[in-house]
Specification:
0% of the residues lie in helices and 56% in strands. By secondary structure, it is mainly β. The chain starts with a strand and ends with a strand.
Length: 125
């Protein structure tokens, strides 16, 4: 079972996105001009949130991510400031790649919980 609150092609122009997958795979591509929030849940599944075509809201954004025996990938542009925090329980939380964001720009905050799973933020190589 998997659901995502997106258009038929898996994209969303909304400022907030939600994705849930259990025993499946879900990919959401945001094209928001002012991305504000996301809620991602993967239970024995994979969820990918692609923000490479989105822009952060001026006040920044928050994504809550929970992975239980699964994997969540959040893809962000290299010029975004990103802060990742949370609780791994037999799992991992990673912020991969170097950003080139200005120190005073908006920030994406990722609140992650990984229970025997993984939550990772990746930038393009």
């Amino acid at each position: 079972m998997s659901t995502a609150y997106t258009e038929n092609d898996g994209t969303s122009a909304d400022d907030a996105v939600r994705a849930f997958a259990a025993l499946g795979e879900q990919r959401v591509v945001s094209r928001s001009s002012a991305f504000r929030s996301g809620s991602l849940t993967a239970i024995a599944s994979e969820v990918t949130l692609d923000l490479l075509q989105a822009q952060l809201a001026p006040e920044g954004a928050v994504v809550d991510a929970m992975s239980v025996f699964g994997e969540i990938r959040i893809l962000v542009p290299s010029d975004w400031r990103v802060a990742v925090g949370g609780t791994p329980v037999g799992g991992s939380i990673k912020n991969k790649g170097r950003g080139t964001a200005p120190a005073d720009g908006p920030e994406l905050r990722v609140n992650a919980t990984a229970v025997f799973g993984e939550v990772k933020v990746k930038r393009p190589s």
